[in-house]
Amino acid sequence: MKLPRDFTDYFGGKQNVLNDMMLSKFTHQFFEETWTIDDIPEDYYSLKDGVKLMSSGKIHQANEGCSCAMGTVMTQFIQNLRLKEDQFALMDMEAGIEHFGRGIDNGVDLILIIIDPSYESLQLSKKIGELSESIRKPFYYVLNKVTKENKEMMYEAVWNSSRVAVSLGADPSITGEGLMGKELSEKPDAIENLTEFLLSI
Question: pLDDT per residue over 149-158, tens digit each?
Answer without folding.
Answer: 999 999 999 9
